[in-house]
Amino acid sequence: MSSNSIRTDFPILATEVRGKPLVYLDNAATTQKPQCVIDAISHYYETQNSNVHRAAHYLADLATTAVESSRDKLAEFINAPAREEVIFTRGTTESINLIAGCLDSHLQPGDQILISHAEHHANIVPWQMLAARTGAQLIACNLLDSGDLDLDDFAQKLGPTTKLVAIGHVSNALGTLNPVRDIVQMAKAEGNKDTLVLLDGAQAVGHLSVDVQDLGCDFYAFSGHKMFGPTGIGVVWGRKALLEAMPPWQGGGEMIRTVSITESTYNELPYKYEAGTPNMAGIVGLGAAVDYLNTLPRDELQAQEDKLIAWTLSQLQQVPGIRLVGEPRQRIGAISFVHNEGHPHDLGTLLDQQGIAVRTGHHCAMPLMDHLKLPGTVRASFCLYNQQDDAQRFIDALHKAVTFL
Amino acid sequence: MSDLQEIRDTFELFDDWEDKYRFLIELGKDLPPLAQEHRIEANLIRGCQSQVWLVAEQNAAHDQLDIALDSDAHIVRGLSAVVLAALNHKSPAEILAFDIEGLFTDLDLLQHLSPTRGNGLRAMVAKIREHAQLA
Question: Would the pTM of this model clear 0.90, i.e. be above it?
Fold first, then answer.
């Protein structure tokens, strides 16, 4: 199957921008949605909508079945050992906040939380807040000039006081694929035996087959909207024993078993962590995105995407004044670069005028930009529907853009 | 300092985006850079994509606001030059009465004032109006 035939599944890709066909290379920010996902959301509202788990009527059964069948699909999608380990959230950010919000008793003053300098703010700030509440210390692993994690530094920073490691599976700003399986093993072997590992999978799930059992992590967080699903829905997967031992996070309906004015008892997993009416249409849409991905030869498409990225990289180096930011050993999805005269915002604006959608700025990774001593970068990010024509038009537009600066 | 009418007339002549953006970038390059002593945190308006520095002083003798702007991005500097041509050395009342959105619409640059742009331009205009209100 080629990207050409896949493109037609995504109606928005036919958009024209100022008379030119859209070239969408901002997939690391959000991917577009195939018609089947859009249809699943409409179909849910047209035929199934009702509040889940609450009522004994026909529509409530349909809605509950639709939501719970999505949970099964998601569990299978990441090879979770149990369906109740799949917690629906608003997205990766909420997923990480949920876990960080429930680990206070896991940390003592003097304990350490280890992240990296390349993390997205969503994988930094919740840990800062947890550290502030518990007296733990947040520390960051250095990066090599290539943009890869400095694994020697990582090993050195692991120790008996490391209670938590939180690392991105794929860097949103540089596209680095981190050796997360090795990182989990190192954390478990060289850290404390209680060291928990959370992986931020936001940039991975749209590209790679994820197997949480093979990765060996304790928590895995991701968003629906970066894997062709709707916005406002995501998942955090966690080991059952941990999720059962952790306290609840938000209080409200759905997450309780009994409530009196003075105390409550809490529902079982996964509902303990799903307070309030969930984003039912979003959950159904995300299930449809998983179904869609399951119909595609994902490995083959990823190999095509990798080739497209390799071609783009080789062409980028021939554009006058362009410098790549990050040349990781293994790259997934994204290319970051700067120009020696123009600001990333200038390039982004000049590309936009030519119908090319890229992201410019700090990519919600200000510590990384400080580390690189850059105000930001231009990021072109690809996914399974991008094809040679997108890459060619991007390179042509960039050649033109640099003549302005 | 470019004259606003001159800028309007020049924009009239452009029939494609290329000429317009080349001109904007030129305007930006011609804008005198803000002295290093003014490029400080207190004068910084942070955008998510680019940053703007703004210094506004009330010139009571002439009942006007003297404004200096700078940005780390060429196009935002060019847009700043347009804002300066419209608002610099004007009285607070004139500044508050000026229809900046109308100007950016006429020049077909309104997209740069949109809240989603994150280029600091919208916040910069709001800040100038704030200074005018306090004057």
Answer: yes
